[in-house]
Structure formats: structure tokens, C-alpha cells
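1st attempt posting a full record on here, be nice pls
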Amino acid sequence: MYWTLELASHIEDAPFPSTKDELIDYAIRSGAPIEVIENLQELEDEGEYYESIEDIWPDYPTHDDFFFNEDEY
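the predicted structure (as C-alpha cells):
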């Protein structure tokens, strides 16, 4: 399983919290690339809910990861 920003962007707006099956269904309905669906299928399915994209991809860059001052723009 591998994630890129482009792939992760397809499920960024998914209705969290969601189960693995709900995320796969969302990805299919939203027209995500097959790589996204394959990555989601590789998730461990213990019936747990994923609260955010960070639960799926812990290294997902957040807004705080970008080093610029918005007040200057």
C-alpha cells in the first residue's frame, strides 16, 4: 500500500468517521482511481471506524506542515 497526496486527496472529503467498507464505497462512487480503492482494500478490517485520513495515512501532511505565514498574504 502506498499513498501520495494525489491519491489521498480523493478520500480527503470522505464522510468520517467511516468503516473500511464505507470508505471503499465512497471511493467507488466518487470516481477515485483504482489505486485508491486497492489501498483501501489493503487496510486491516477489524470493524473499527477511521476518524480521519490521518488514521489511514499517518504521514498525511496537515495544514500545519506548510511553513508560511498566511497573515502576510
